[in-house]
Amino acid sequence: MDCSKGWKMAAMQGINAEKSLEEFIEKDLPLLVKPHCNDTIKILTNAIESYHISFKDVLARNPVFLEWVKQRIYLYFASHIKNLDPTNNEEFYACYGAIALQYQREYIYSFTEVQLQNLMNNLDDLKGIHSTTAKVK
User: Fold this and answer.
1) pLDDT digits (tens, 9 = 90+) for 12-43
2) H or E, element range at 106
3) What is the pTM for the complete model shown?
4) Helix/strand/coil percent split, the chain, to 5
């Protein structure tokens, strides 16, 4: 993913007017992290389905899973931006860009690995589906 897409999207939508860090995190950041959420969900879906488990089955058994993943990603970005303590819009977007690059290069993979492991540990009934499906195929 091109990390500049989030900044360009924000500029096109006119949300780059001068604001506080809290306003940036509450209003702009959810729009900026949406592509990262989509990428993460695609990776998770592929990983889950590589175990011959339908992603729809996962969502049926854990309907809040997608929202939980999106919330974790948003909190990852928000906490990192707050820790950097930028003071103006230019710094907000610069911090976002640096964090987005780090997320896409490294964190997305460890994040999805942990989510997949937690999901498999918490969905024992899916393990039964997995072992049955794997034997059939």
Assistant:
1) 455 556 789 999 999 999 999 999 999 999 99
2) none
3) 0.76
4) 80, 0, 20
